[in-house]
From TrEMBL:
InterPro entries: Aminotrans_V_dom, PyrdxlP-dep_Trfase, PyrdxlP-dep_Trfase_major, PyrdxlP-dep_Trfase_small, SP_NH2Trfase/AEP_transaminase
Protein name: Alanine--glyoxylate aminotransferase family protein
Species of provenance: Croceicoccus marinus
Entry binding sites for substrate: R347
Listed GO MF terms: alanine-glyoxylate transaminase activity; L-serine-pyruvate transaminase activity
Assigned keywords, A-Z: Aminotransferase, Pyridoxal phosphate, Transferase
Highest taxon in the source lineage: Bacteria
UniProt keyword Transferase, yes or no: yes
Cofactor(s) listed in the protein's UniProt record: pyridoxal 5'-phosphate
Pfam families xrefs: Aminotran_5
Length: 395
């Protein structure tokens, strides 16, 4: 019950136990086409280029950034937590010129500040995280694509922690590339990364591939000029593999594709609106229960993620001792924190298969016992009823 990964849905695990298929087997390529169709509504898009990157969520982040930007390009990062910093680290390795517009951890960057920064910097790419689990905040994305197009920039969003749990409106927001992972709201294992790419971004990626093929290796030996992208993370090559051409790029991770396919089937079978409502109910119940235990909730309420809730560790309580007790006595994992929040807050996830009433009530009952055994003067018997009431108020 931490910020992810979470327990995979049993249907996903069963799907992943099926026999392997060759990567060019017609049944396998049929599954690839199904995956593309299944993930379009989950991303809120009609994009042709909606597919999977074989690797963890970070593989799709890196593939996107190295295929959009090249050395010397200016990239604006909207940074409000640990995973905004990850974007800057990847971009530094590319050799991009990085500008940031920042917010303190526990806040988001207001849209007017984002707009001002885009118009001032005029970047090649604008990159941000949607929901940053390190801070439990969700950055508003309405209008971001339009702001980027004003200055001719491409937009990239990491939705690893929110896809399948909060609405992602790729087309309506005008975002060029959105990526995610399975291990959070989609209820699967880490190791496959859904991605959607606009036609505009696809044209740029394919055009850049053709330009770079004409560059002699000697011309870039000193690091000047465009660099040819990574082979494994070259989106143009991966897109060729997912196209009707089926040009070989790598051996497809068949088992992970089965899992990703079933994650999407589960999500669409439940219905996206119902799924978003369930995550909102779970987040409200977790928040109400934590507050009833006497814990102060971290961060502002208006832009909080529905699937991850932070709570301040009470003064005088050993946060790691409580986490160890939860794990040792109840087999429940809750999250610690990064950076300036390390040792100061716990993070509680309620997402995907774990965004259920029973898991939340069990977690809160266990936490009550563990807080008491670690010397916190908790009021007994109030957390579960408070969480139950919050859940049912949204039913």
């Amino acid at each position: 019950m931490g910020p992810g990964p979470i327990n995979a849905h049993p249907r996903v695990l069963r799907a992943m136990s099926a026999d392997l298929l060759g990567q060019f087997d017609p049944e396998m390529t049929g599954y690839m086409n199904q995956v593309m169709a299944l993930y379009r509504p989950i991303f809120g898009t009609e994009n042709r280029w909606t597919m999977l990157i074989d690797g963890t969520a970070r593989s799709a982040i890196e593939a996107s950034l190295i295929s959009l930007a090249q050395p010397g390009d200016t990239v604006l990062v909207i940074n409000f937590g640990r995973f905004g910093l990850l974007l800057t680290e990847i971009l530094e390795r590319i050799g991009a010129r990085i500008e940031t517009v920042d917010a303190p951890w526990g806040e988001i960057v207001p849209t007017d500040r984002v707009a001002e920064a885009i118009r001032r910097v005029k970047p090649k790419v604008v990159a941000t995280v949607h929901g940053d689990t390190s801070t439990t905040m969700a950055q508003p994305l309405e209008g971001l694509g339009g702001l980027c197009r004003e200055v001719g920039a491409f937009s990239y969003v990491d939705a690893t922690a929110t896809l399948g749990g909060m609405p992602i409106e790729t087309d309506r927001w005008g975002i060029d590339i959105v990526t995610a992972g399975l291990q959070k709201c989609l209820g699967g294992p880490s190791g496959s990364a859904p991605i959607t790419i606009s036609d505009r971004a696809a044209e740029h990626i394919f055009t850049r591939r053709h330009v770079e093929k004409g560059i002699r290796r000697d011309d870039i030996a000193d690091g000047s000029g465009p660099r040819i992208a990574s082979n494994y993370f070259d989106l143009a090559m991966i897109m060729d593999y997912w196209s009707e051409k089926r040009l070989n790029h790598h051996t497809e991770a068949t088992t992970m594709l089965y899992g990703a396919r079933e994650c999407a089937r589960v999500a669409l079978g439940e219905g996206l609106e119902a799924r978003f409502a369930r995550h909102a109910s779970a987040g409200a119940a977790m928040e109400a229960g934590l507050a009833a235990l006497g814990l102060a909730i971290f961060g502002g309420t208006e832009n909080r993620m529905t699937n991850v809730t932070g709570a301040w560790i009470p003064e005088g309580v050993d946060g790691e001792a409580v986490r160890a007790a939860m794990r040792d006595h109840f087999e429940i994992e809750i999250g610690t924190a990064f950076g300036p929040l390390a040792g100061r807050i716990w993070r509680f996830g309620a997402m995907g298969y774990n965004a259920r009433k029973d898991t939340i009530l069990t977690t809160l009952a266990a936490l009550e016992a563990c807080l008491a055994m670690n010397g916190f003067a908790v009021t007994r018997g109030e957390a579960v009823p408070a969480a139950l009431a919050a859940w049912e108020a949204r039913a």
